Amino acid sequence: MKDFRSLKVWESAYQLSLDVYRVSVAFPADERFGLTSQLRRSVVSIPSNIAEGCGRGTDSDFTRFVQIAMGSASEVECQLMLARDLGFVPAEASDPLIANVQEIKRMISGLIKRLNADR
Question: Which pTM value belongs to this model?
Answer without folding.
Answer: 0.95
